[in-house]
Amino acid sequence: MGVGVEKNNVKCELIISGGTVLTMTPESEPLPDGAVAVTSGEIVEVGGAADLLGKYRPARVLDAGGGIILPGFVNTHTHLAMTLLRGLADDLPLIEWLEKHIWPTERVLMNAEMVMLGTRLAAAESLQAGVTCVCDMYFHAERVIETVVAAGLRAVVPEAMIDFATPSSATPEDALAVQRDLLERYRSHPLVVPAVAPHSPYTVSAAHLAREAELAEEFGAPLIIHLAETRWEAEKIKSEKGVSPVAYLADLGILSERTVAAHCVHVTEEDLGLLAELEVGVATNPVSNLKLSSGVAPVPQMLELGIKVGFGTDGAASNNTLDLLRDAQLASLLYKGLTGDPTRMQARTIVEMLTIGGAKVLGLSDRIGTLEAGKRADVVCFALDHPRSVPVYDPYSHMAYAARSSDARHVVVDGRVVVQDRALIDTDVDSLLDDVREAATRARELLAT
Ligand SMILES: [Zn+2]
What we know:
This protein has 449 residues and is α/β, with parallel strands linked by helices. It is built from 15 helices and 16 strands. Helix 3 (112-128) packs parallel to helix 4 (141-151) and helix 5 (172-185) runs parallel beside helix 6 (206-219). The chain has helices spanning 49-55, 94-109, 112-128, 141-151, 172-185, 206-219, 231-241, 245-252, 269-277, 286-291, 299-304, 324-339, 347-361, 395-402, 429-448; strands at 10-21, 31-39, 42-48, 56-71, 73-75, 131-135, 154-161, 192-198, 223-227, 259-263, 281-284, 308-311, 379-382, 408-413, 416-420, 423-424. The chain is 40% helix and 23% strand. The mean pLDDT is 96. It has 2 domains: 10-71 and 370-414, Urease, subunit C, domain 1; 73-361, Alpha-Beta Barrel (TIM Barrel). The N and C termini lie far apart (77 Å). Strands 3-2-1-4-13-14-15-16 form an 8-stranded mixed sheet, covered by helices on one side. A 4-stranded parallel sheet has the order 5-6-7-8. Bound molecules: zinc ion. Zinc ion is lined by residues 77, 79, 226, 262, 314-315. Zinc ion binds at residues 77, 79, 226, 262, 314-315.
């Protein structure tokens, strides 16, 4: 046999073909009639469909049906299990919403079983919306990990720390012990990245924040924190510490290239300089910030400064969905409107932030975020079968302005097909929804007593 590759001679597990491929690699052009070849969960080649189908002998072909094939979306900030609290309390400012509704409800409701149920619901909702990777922040982290792995969803999963008792940790010391255990056990998991997560600068003491930073440093793990979300927080930290929340955390040594800072709404020019210098990743959550009237993060300035920014939905209790595409599309319109400059947050930028931008925020851009050989195969095929889906002159424009998350037709995570023809493969959605309705009935009874 010569060195040339014989036709159909190379085995591979999966070829995704029959659509325009957006690889999201720098300077790349859309690849019409492209394909992605996958083996052992890894992308082995991206190219023309005719070439790849001629070269490889795939065990399976997934036909995108003339749609758009792109990297799965990365939700850089959410609280998966809070899907169970969707619509529980709306139309309130953040602190009242947290202190009077969310935290008291979590204390009585969110045991390990309910966290698993909420996480199952969140995984189903995420995958069906084209989201293949999420960064969670919640409690009972081990149960969250079991649940996302079973669902086939890639996730950064911390056990959250607050200076008061949480549903799974009586004290911050307990949370630290859980975090250390998870960091040791899941450090090389194919789907899960264990992390630490002090809740915020206003709910975790300086001493505990420092412990969290040390632990994250020891394991090279992501540190996830809410930061500068509301004016109330900015004023509180300023009055107590004399500086902004960002400067306060920077002084404590909490901020690094492994930090995922959710929100960063109330930030000064100096704060932005610190976020850029320290290479902090920012998870921006436009829907949640608008709904809670927390404000609007200066995302265009962040991007100009080279700060890593990805989209997050935040929890379904403040969004009220995990529809990341909605956040992205809203952001594009929001900043055009606010700045009076329609050239801000252009279509390609929006798709980049949904994919490789989010992967960079989570420190996962060596594994996911683009479609290229060597990356894990997290791939979404968006259908173009709706009247609003034609014509497509520019696939980035389509994704940023016309697509809906319900167009996510096929979803592949780590090479595993988890959604096919808009249906979850391994989840009985009807029974899942029944379980959630039943749990909500119990929750209502519990809260009434
Ligand atoms: Zn949050």
